[in-house]
Design brief:
This protein is mostly beta strands. It is built from one helix and 13 strands.
Length: about 190
């Protein structure tokens, strides 16, 4: 009888391991969802969501880097916001393991790459990125050609420097509002 009891107990234990997995085994954390690229207006609001799986024993961070990766700002760790800026807030939803970073009153300086990171060790992390682009109205800089007087038949060179997001398209017009072809070096009246 004692052997039957041990056999039954061993069978139950093996069955439990088969369904649950080996004791102490842990699945590798993953980022199951990250918000796609965002393009927002100055003054608007954006929400960036990062959902993770099997990361309850690991630290999850939001980090912002500049587009050229030269500047890094640490925003949050776990469900706590580190950045002291009232425009930023962080929500953590335990049921979906989602970390949602919200930015209100978006400024041009908020543009960049937002990274959700699950830190596995000092040298190992899982990262997903969300680019945030901020629309800026087109601005023509002061060093553009303001006016130009040339003799008929002589070449003329005009320059226009503009910035904005998305990158503005530049067109030249005559006094009668007719559009000049771009990229041509020889324009006739």
């Amino acid at each position: 009888m004692w052997n039957n009891y041990l056999s039954l107990l061993l069978g139950v234990a093996l069955l439990a391991i088969a369904f649950v997995g080996p004791v102490g085994a842990q699945r590798t954390p993953t980022i199951s969802y990250i918000t796609q690229e965002q393009i927002k207006d100055i003054g608007g609001t954006v929400e960036l969501e990062c959902s993770v799986l099997y990361a309850s024993d690991y630290s999850v961070h939001w980090i912002k880097t500049s587009n050229d990766r030269s500047d890094v700002v640490f925003l949050s760790t776990g469900s706590s916001l580190v950045l002291k800026d009232s425009r930023f807030s962080l929500r953590y939803d335990l049921s979906s393991s989602s970390y949602t970073l919200q930015i209100k009153d978006i400024q041009e300086t908020d543009a960049g790459i937002y990274q959700c990171q699950v830190v596995l060790s000092v040298t190992n992390k899982i990262t997903a990125e969300v680019p945030l682009n901020v629309r800026r109205p087109p601005i023509i800089s002061d060093n553009s050609t303001q006016s130009l007087v040339v003799s008929e038949g002589q070449p003329a060179q005009m320059e226009c420097y503009a910035s904005g997001y998305p990158v503005p398209q530049i067109t030249w017009r005559r006094e009668n509002n007719a559009i000049l072809p771009t990229g041509e070096s020889d324009l006739k009246p």
